[in-house]
Amino acid sequence: MTSPGKIGAFFDLDGTLLGPPSLEWRFIGYLLERDEITTKNVARWVARSAKALLNGERCAVLANKHYLAGIRESIAGEWANTIARGSLPLFVEGIDRMRQHLERGHRVVVVTGTLAPLARAVTRHLPRGVEVFGTKPEICAGCFTGRLSGAHLSFAEKARVIHEYAEGFDLDLRQSFAYGNEMSDAKMLGAVGHPAAVNASWRLKREARKRGWRLYSWRDSRGKKERNPHRPLAPKEAR
What we know:
CATH topology: Rossmann fold
CATH superfamily: HAD superfamily/HAD-like
Oligomer: single chain
CATH class: Alpha Beta
């Protein structure tokens, strides 16, 4: 039997624990309301995204943060202070699932492609003890540069983070859990013994059925009904 402290539970954030719009779009809305984003930055952001899309470089699209160039880092903290828990459409089944893992002594970690400062703003509304890894924006002289400090946490990068974390804490990934909603989470799900596709996109749903992964549909804190209500960890899963 694997010790509970040697088991991890890894969660994606947007779409898995949190309903739309994504955290980054919420932040962009905040910046636009305050005229923080310049027309020049928007044009550069759109142009680079369009070029990457034409070249089939989805990772490059996700990593494009040029709308942030020159914006002070501290505004992320100001935005975080405006967030009330009730304003976030957190999926209650997801939060309950986190609590179950924590109660069993598992290490619970959010691994998300969203910007790390934004992801940390949400952790204050999650159960205590949850860790978070997000995409790190590059900062120079107290301002965002529009570039990333390292890779965007999606696709293979999510799996890399999980493997490095597991190695650091001597976790048994064969007995560990992961939850994600998009194909960008597929490698993360494939890294553990108990993967689950949550509110899955059609591509991830197809992959999950092909590989025998669990499928869940979670609902938000406002009581919106979803199919397949949350089920507690089964005895075999709870080890």
